[in-house]
Design a protein that fits this description.
Largest sheet: 5 strands, mixed
Order of helices and strands: EEEHEHEHEEEHHEHEH
Strand order of the largest sheet: 3-2-1-4-5
Low-confidence stretches: none
Structural class: alpha/beta
Helix content: 25-40%
Number of domains: 2
Oligomer: single chain
Radius of gyration: 19 Å
CATH topology of the largest domain: Nucleotidyltransferase, domain 5
Distance between the termini: 13 Å
Mean pLDDT: 93
Shape: globular
């Protein structure tokens, strides 16, 4: 069985694949202070019952990736491991100014989106930041846009505004909030949906200059369900997109 690990700035998502089927997944907090031994204790508690035949990792947190390398050397030395980094075969050409700047998760999402939905495509990944990744009809990564994420925007507002506070992010009864809580919920959820739709429409207009097909818009990430019912441009929701991409890249390299 293959263990896939997607290390994000806020959360780490782990998944177990049996062949092409994702049989189990977990979401845990990312803590860059965790040592290799602490990571092992956490992972062992989750995956000890599985007979692992492979390990695939992508990380946007350098400190955690460093400790993961140590953990692999100490506890997974006999397990074939793929870490998404320069030199790994991904099958994704990076048509950008500096390919080394592109986060591993964006490359993984590009491969998974093109494999599942074809191209052109726009992947909207709702995480610590909201990433818009643009995929060509042949699976190339064309670039995209990065915006502050939903949760950190709410936290920043609560921290900087004396009379505002963090609220539960659920859809309010109406766009016009009748109290502070509803007003914050409306501004956050409808506001970010408007941001998504606005950027997707502008990206689609640029893509139309080069490609005749309309892009498929794919949502993923832990906060995607907040926007799914509100956005007018999202076509598909694949919560496990990054884990699927990790499986595909591992298969290419083993």
């Amino acid at each position: 069985m293959l263990l896939t690990v997607d290390v994000g700035n806020t959360n780490t998502v782990l998944g177990i694949f049996e062949g092409a089927n994702l049989t189990q997944s977990w979401r845990v907090k990312t803590d860059p202070r965790n040592t290799a031994d602490e990571l092992w204790l956490q992972y062992e508690a989750l995956v000890s019952e599985y007979d692992l035949t492979g390990l695939a990792i992508c990380s946007t947190v350098p400190a955690t990736l460093r400790e993961l390398r140590r953990m692999i050397a100490d506890y997974f030395e006999d397990v074939p491991t793929t870490i998404v980094e320069p030199g790994i075969k991904t099958g994704v050409p990076l048509l950008v100014d500096n390919p080394k700047e592109i986060g591993a998760d964006r490359i993984v999402n590009t491969l998974a989106a093109h494999t599942l939905f074809g191209g052109p495509a726009i992947v909207v990944d709702f995480g610590t930041s909201t990433n818009f990744d643009v995929v060509s009809p042949t699976g190339e990564f064309l670039g995209g846009a990065l915006a502050p994420g939903i949760e950190i925007s709410v936290e920043a507002l609560a921290a900087r505004a004396a009379q505002l506070r963090k609220v539960e992010l659920v859809l309010p009864k109406s766009v016009i909030g009748k109290n502070t809580v509803e007003a914050l919920q409306s501004g956050t959820i409808y506001g970010f949906a408007g941001q998504v739709d606005g950027l997707v429409n502008r990206i689609s207009e640029e893509l139309a200059l080069s490609y005749s097909d309309t892009p498929t818009v794919v949502a993923t990430g832990g906060l995607a369900p907040l926007i799914l019912g509100v956005s007018e441009t999202i076509d598909e929701h694949e919560p496990d997109l990054t884990l699927i991409g990790l499986r595909l890249i591992h298969e290419r390299n083993q």
